[in-house]
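Hi R.,

Here's the input for the inosinic acid complex you asked about:
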Amino acid sequence: MHRDQDIEKIFFTEEQIHKRVRELGIQLSAEYADKNPVLVGVLKGSFVFLSDLIRAMTIHCQVEFVACSSYGAGTETSGQVKLTKDLGTDITGRHVLIVEDILDSGVTISFLKDYIASKNPASVKVCTFLDKPARRIKPFQADYVGYACEDAFVVGYGLDYAERYRNLPYIGVLKPEIYTHA
Ligand code: IMP
Ligand code: MG
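And here is the predicted structure with inosinic acid in place:
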């Protein structure tokens, strides 16, 4: 089976994604000029966006990763967040930009932002490629957003369903029968 055959509808094409990433790269390069920010990618979903984003940035920056668990194999949050991979560096006094694939309930990012803030960084902001504001359980506003997304479980560009579809170069929704049969 070919990954693309499971897609029902494309929400954001490869071209739309790259256009927006380039814009974010320009904006972040201006706002973090001379700040040598630490970009903290939230594994695994953000790795595709983060790799494009840093190449769209023209300033010096450092890349680190954290991992959290809150989801099982399904599409709903469990409401519980655990840090499963910690930062590999001291961020005291540093400008930190957390990079997420998508904000959904807001539970993961609220937990992470508090955790990062507790390490006394110079600043902590959040950049997410997609935002589903309609789904918030915890009120949360990202500082930088790629695109607002309608309330649907999307895959591609790093986002998975049961660990598949991260390698789609576009973002879309799966055919309904895929969600029920995985
Ligand atoms: P939150 O804690 O509910 O905001 O969930 C954030 C995390 O859930 C994201 O980093 C994703 O890994 C995952 N997630 C939320 N919505 C989707 C979706 O539509 N597709 C794929 N993963 C999602
Ligand atoms: Mg996931």
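One thing worth noting: The pocket of inosinic acid (ligand 1) is lined by residues 42, 45, 70-71, 77, 100-109, 153-155, 159 (CB under 6 Å).

Cheers,
M.
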